Amino acid sequence: MNIRASNLCKDYSSGTERIQALRNVSLEIEPGEFLALAGPSGSGKSTLLNLLGGLDRPDEGKIFFGDQLVSEYSAQQLALLRLWHVGFIFQNFNLIPILNVLENVEYVMMLQGLPQAERKERSLAILADVGLKDYAGRKSNDLSGGQQQRVAVARAIVSRPNIVLADEPTANLDSKTAVALLDLMADLNRTHKITFLFSSHDPLVLHRAHRVLNLHDGELLD
């Protein structure tokens, strides 16, 4: 499923000031791409990810998933879009501390209503892929930052979304852990054909991306 955005605009209020986060951004993402959004802090990277993932709505412009105009979806439709088609990786991991590693990975599939046996089988398989199968019963707070981020990657891809949106995924990691994580995601991209879109200004991320889109002051540069 390809994803297209056309002339996206998004403003935010800061006190009495109106800030243009995005201005007329258009892009197309092909299935199976491994690409990055580059730009300094405040350039609009996270805003664009939030719009593409259905976490926020554009003030102007359109977003298509295949032939579906998702930017006009209702709140319920957007929730279903996120549940079935979009995986998220956040820089602060966003794991659920009261759940163990296996339960965190299973969580999206539980919301999807998949049978417990299938959830467990798929979760253990993906935890093996990320090198954490032996940690399935541990609480997420007992893991290192790199291990928690690998759990977040496993959770993002286990439900087989069309696209994974990763917002500064290496921001809280040392360089060795970041390289290992990026190599892992590149391998998952090749083997599972999942589209990855990163928001980052980390050279490690930008070097591995097959295509880099540059944002500056809310505009996509040529």
Overall description:
- With 222 residues, this protein is of the alpha/beta class.
- It has a domain at 3-97 and 164-220: Rossmann fold, CATH 3.40.50.300.
- Helices cover 37% and strands 27% of the residues.
- It has helices spanning 45-52, 75-85, 101-112, 116-129, 145-158, 175-192, 203-208, and strands at residues 3-14, 17-29, 34-38, 60-65, 68-69, 86-89, 163-167, 195-199, 211-216, 219-220.
- The two termini are 24 Å apart.
Structural class: alpha/beta
Instruction: Please tally the helical runs, counting DSSP H or I stretches of 4 or more residues.
Output: 7
Largest sheet: 6 strands, mixed
Strand content: 25-35%
Distance between the termini: 24 Å
Number of strands: 10
> What sort of overall outline do the alpha carbons produce when their principal axes are compared?
globular
CATH architecture of the domain at 3-97 and 164-220: 3-Layer(aba) Sandwich
